[in-house]
Amino acid sequence: MQAIKQLYKIGYGPSSSHTIAPYRIAEYYRNEFPECKRYEIELGGSLALTAKGHGTINIISQALGTKNIHFNYDFETVKNNMFIQGFNDNEEFPLWHGLSLGGGAVKIEEYDTGDEDEVYVENNFEEIKKYLNENNTDLLSYVYAHEPDLKEYLKKCLKVMYETVIKGLNTEGLLNADLNYYRVAKKLYEKAEVRKDYLVAYSYAAAEENAGGGLMCTAPTLGACGILTSLMYYLHFNENIDDDKLCDLLAIAGVFGNCIKKNASIAGSTGGCQSEVGTACAMASAAIAYKEGFGLNTIEYAAEMGIEHFLGLTCDPVLGYVIIPCIERNAISILRAYDCAYLAEQLNNVKGNAISFDSVVHAMNYTGNKLAIELKETSLGGLSLEYKYAKN
Ligand code: SF4
């Protein structure tokens, strides 16, 4: 499996697949061929279908430092391709074929980004548990032994998460004219009294900031960033948990996100929203269970439950914006993560879990493959279609 660090990328919203990944591909190209004055770019699959709503065009212009770009779109392919070629007055530069893999990860045929480097030899949670048993170690030590620089990096992520929520809580007004969506995080915060209310307000703050193109941290994607971001903010500012401990929680959460990334997908365009919000819910459930001091079986049970009841969740963002259903869904998911952690503890005391974490991930992969393309971040079906019908 790849580094857990890869699950927590810092970049601009609203979608890690559609903003962070294209930005990175464009930036690598620009650094390699700085003489280019104009570009031809072809976007494919979901990158093409939601280019406007997901802010892909703007972010690419930003990365290349010019608007002198001609865009073509391939709506036929299901692959999130990004072909890029640069030119100047009398020279033609190489054509690159990039792919957005989900969570801001990229693959470029002509350039090694290091995104696909393997850091862990274990392939799933069963193998990780076997390693822990054989080496008489615990999950956190296992992670830090493989990624000694992870904690320092996660501290930077926490800083971004805090700033995101603070900004989101202090911003009001119109977020999106096409949807007539006005920000509500500040109002929610002003009315908050109990944990549930605060989590919802923080989650809205993060998700609204993301939808507005703010600087965010993926966890494991930007569409689902409000879940772990709100949890970290709540635990730090409402429960006084320090950054050191919160990094441990993110590391534990990352183990489960990593297993999903390896054996299913964390991209809405590949597996539907179960892959984004479902994964983030599983990660947050595991983090909460760990924070509560529950044992490894309960942590696994909580993570499993976090996905199990999101299986089949579709990705059908209205008008291609990461707003409806995304913002509300983030809030629901962080509440569910708390339920999963406590319910897992309760149930684990009276019975074992019939479905292992690896099994639910397997089912998630199966389900994601069966989902219609209209329900995988193309805005061609589901809620997106209903909204269009209702408006016409
Ligand atoms: S519906 Fe889910 S997967 Fe799709 S864009 Fe929204 S948060 Fe991401």
Walk me through the structure.
This protein is an alpha+beta fold and 392 residues long. The chain folds into 2 domains: 96 residues, 60s Ribosomal Protein L30, Chain: A (2-Layer Sandwich); 267 residues, no CATH class. The chain is 54% helix and 12% strand. The strands form 3 sheets. Strands 3-2-4-5-6 form a 5-stranded mixed beta sheet. A two-stranded antiparallel sheet has the order 1-9. A hairpin with a 2-residue loop joins strand 4 and strand 5. Helix 6 packs across helix 10 and helix 8 crosses helix 9. The longest helix is centred in the C-terminal third of the chain and has 25 residues. The radius of gyration is 20 Å and the shape is globular. 51% of the residues are buried. Bound molecules: iron/sulfur cluster. The site of iron/sulfur cluster has 13 residues, from helix 12 and helix 14.
Structure keywords:
12% strand, five-stranded mixed beta sheet, 60s Ribosomal Protein L30, Chain: A, 392 residues, two-stranded antiparallel ribbon, binds iron/sulfur cluster, 2 domains
Attached small molecules: iron/sulfur cluster
Range of strand content: 5-15%
SS field, number of helical segments: 16
Given as residue ranges, the uncertain stretches (5+ residues, pLDDT < 50) are none
Q: How many discrete structural domains? A: 2
Number of strand elements: 9
The general outline is globular
| Secondary structure category | alpha+beta
Query: SSE order in H/E notation?
Result: EHEHHEEEEHHHEEHHEHHHHHHHH
Straight-line N-to-C gap: 47 Å
Radius of gyration: 20 Å
Query: In which range does the helix fraction lie?
Result: 40-55%
